[in-house]
Amino acid sequence: MSTSKQTHDHDEIKNWAAERGGVPAKVKDTGGNSDDEGILRIHFPENSENQDTLKEIQWEDFFQEFDEENLDFLYQETKADGEVSTFHKFVKRQ
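^ 1,4-alpha-glucan branching enzyme, sequence as received from the core. Prediction below:
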């Protein structure tokens, strides 16, 4: 059985992403105004065909918005079959 974890610890999020080849990104053209590039994501370039819809950003910029939006990172370490998981999503911090 796979279980999810939840955190807002920056180092924990960066380590989880790095172990899976993930980088901070935003979804292009999803921002509400010219100052907002779009929705936050962790992008896995080696496993993605959506290269042109995502823009890689710096961790500093990622965490600034992450904290401003009061988000938590919900994620899995492994799938039910034991494989490494890339499942994650952002949720409002309680």
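Residues 4-92 form one domain.
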